[in-house]
Every structure is written in C-alpha cells, then in structure tokens.
Amino acid sequence: SSPEAPCSGFTEKQRRKQPGRKVILDFPRMMYYNSFLTVAVLFEQLINEPVTNYQKKRMGKGMKKVDLLYEGKAKKVYKTDDPDCYIVDYKDDATAMDGLKKGTIVGKGAINNRMTNHIFKLLEKEGIPTHYVEELSDRETAVKKVEIVPLEVIIRNITAGSFAKKMGVEEGIVFKRPTLEFSYKNDDLHDPFINKYYALSLELATEEEIDTITEYAFKVNEVMKKYFDSLGIDLVDFKIEFGRYKGQIILADEVSPDTCRLWDKETHEKLDKDRFRRDMGNVEDAYNEVFRRLGIEDRK
Length: 300
Ligand code: TMP
Ligand code: ASP
Hints:
By secondary structure, the chain is α+β, with helices and mostly antiparallel strands.
C-alpha cells in the first residue's frame, strides 16, 4: 500500500535494495545506455558508489539542502534541489508554554527524527499516507513537500494535560472511546481550541478534508495504541498534523515524545515531554527509554 515515493521516481523498496547489494548486471539498463554509461553503471555497481545521476537519485544521495525555508521551535525545514521534497532537520531545542520555557533535551533531535520515521513507516503499512520519503541521517529526513493544514489534531485515550484541567477531572481516567479535538495552528492566538464548523467558516480546510483527517486520526490512534501497548506503553494522547500533497491529505510533521503522552503500563511513569514541561527531571532518560523500546537499529 506504500505509495510510490516522489523525488526520484523510485519506490522505497527499490531504494532499500541498495546498501550492500550484490553486483547484478542490469541488462535492460545496459542496453538502454550508450557504451560509456554502461561502463559507468558497471563501475558504480562494483564500487557500490553512485556515479551516474540515475544511480545518485536511486540511492537517495542526489538531494541537497538549498535554502532554509523555516526554522521552528524543534525543527528546521530546507528547500531542496527537488521541487517535490523538503529536508527536515530535527533540533535538540525544547520549548513549552508557547515558547516561554526554553531548554535543550540532549539527543532529542535524533530520537524524534528516527522515531517519527519508524512510526510513519508502520502507519504507511496500515494504509495511512505520510510525507515520509527517506531518512538521510540521524537528524535529517527527506519528506514530501506539503502545504500544512493549520489544524493541530489531538486524540486522547486517557485524561491528562489540558483536557483534565479544562474539564475539571483528574489525570489517568481511561475513556471508553477516544476523543478528538482540533486547535487552530496560530502562535499569535496561542493555538486556540476550535471545532469543525469554525474550521469550515475560517476556510482552513474543506469538509471532505476534515472528514479524511478525522478518519485518518482515529486510524493512526488504533495502530499506535496497539503498537505502544506491545512495548509496555500506554498511549495517553498525541497531536498530529496533516498536509496537502498533490491534492491528497497525508500525515506530516512528527510523532515523538514531544507530541505524545506515553506512560509506562506498569509503573505509570511519564516517558514524554511532560517531564520537561513540569520540571520532573530525567527527561533524556525518558526519551532514551522510549527509543530503546522501539528497537530501532543504529544507523551505519
Ligand atoms: P494538551 O493536553 O496540553 O492539550 O496536549 C495534548 C497532546 O498534544 C499531548 O500529547 C502533547 C501534544 N502537544 C503538542 O504536540 N504540541 C503542543 O503545542 C501542545 C500544547 C500539546
Ligand atoms: N511546543 C509548544 C510550545 O513551545 C508546547 C508544548 O509542547 O507544550 O509552546
């Protein structure tokens, strides 16, 4: 169900074949290229390094950062030499309370980048389209260039945070069915709570888009809840964002301990950014623990 990756015209599967591959003569390509290129293709297969542009793109090594497009609180976004792609670069910077509280969570950039990619690949397998294209380094990922829908979509399975405060209930009550809310992504207004009808009147998205977003958000919850459960973690709540790509709604932004509440199933210990927001200490330990449980292998 994984849609064909943009940017090079090759699928994820074709790209993954590349590292450490055997030298297999690619006769159709050799026939296609003239004799010089045939030699080049043979050579690059022998040394396992891209020589032709064809192979550079195929190995995902053709993409370069061009201009810094935007620097957010936790990420930088770069334009690339590919008009359909951006490169996201995750930082260790952390903020809370609308940026009033500032700090650093050492190692967070790499954890959030690699965790997001891991989860997005899982979601793609389950039929949720995402902006993921290719992980370029510990902190950098090539993503499809989307136009972000200015809605923060929050799903909750257990009471916590602003829900508990606003509704006057304690944290930790498990809902019989999950709930969803939207915030209008607008820093000047402090991301106010809005509903579908506000979003329609403000023309933030069409009704069809909001319905797709809602359907995807609940599906993301089902997949992630089950997955985190298998890691001994309760997925309390999370925030996701969507974008438009070639007329379709796809999942964008990130899924990480910055954007999810994750509680250990046994001890109920918080393994997420609330440790930073609430000055609880052991912030890095919590991020590392989540990363460890995900079982993501080291990059070579
Ligand atoms: P809340 O309870 O503070 O509304 O947060 C709900 C979820 O959304 C929680 O998992 C943290 C996440 N979140 C963000 O990702 N970004 C934000 O700016 C805020 C306020 C919350
Ligand atoms: N990232 C948001 C901010 O800086 C809030 C949060 O995650 O709590 O305000």
